[in-house]
Amino acid sequence: GTSLHTEDGGRTWEKQYSGVKNSLKAVYFLNENVGWVVGGEGTILATRDGGRRWAKRFSGTKYNLNAIHFPDPKHGWIVGDNGIILRFVSK
Fold first, then answer.
1. Where in the sequence is the domain holding 71, given as residue range(s)?
2. Is residue 65 a contact partner of residue 42, using CB atoms and an 8 Å limit?
3. Cα separation of 12 and 87, whole Å?
């Protein structure tokens, strides 16, 4: 999947490759540096540098993941097809 990156408040955008071929469905940033992306076939990606580089994370499913939300920096929820609900807890 392809993501877009801006460094000028959205005036211009650069394409960047995420490192996966699956579709990307939802993105959630906790702050300007830490963010997550979910997508097709259980794809989860994480960044710590504002989206310049993405790292794959293990989801344990091959179902599409469609939405992600973090109510606070240590707890996250991901939902997907077939009733999949994943919970993230950071120590």
1. 23-89
2. yes
3. 34
Residues with Cβ within 8 Å of 91's Cβ and at least 6 positions away in sequence, in order, are 74
Q: What is the domain count for the chain?
A: 1
Q: Is residue 79 included in any domain, yes or no?
A: yes
pTM of the model: 0.86
One-letter amino acid identity for 59? S
Residue 17 lies in a domain: no
Question: What tens digit of pLDDT does each residue of 13-64 get?
Answer: 888 777 787 889 999 999 989 999 999 999 999 999 988 889 999 999 999 9
Place of tokens 């469609």: 66
Q: Which two tokens stand for residue 78?
A: 């991901």
CA distance 24 to 41: 10
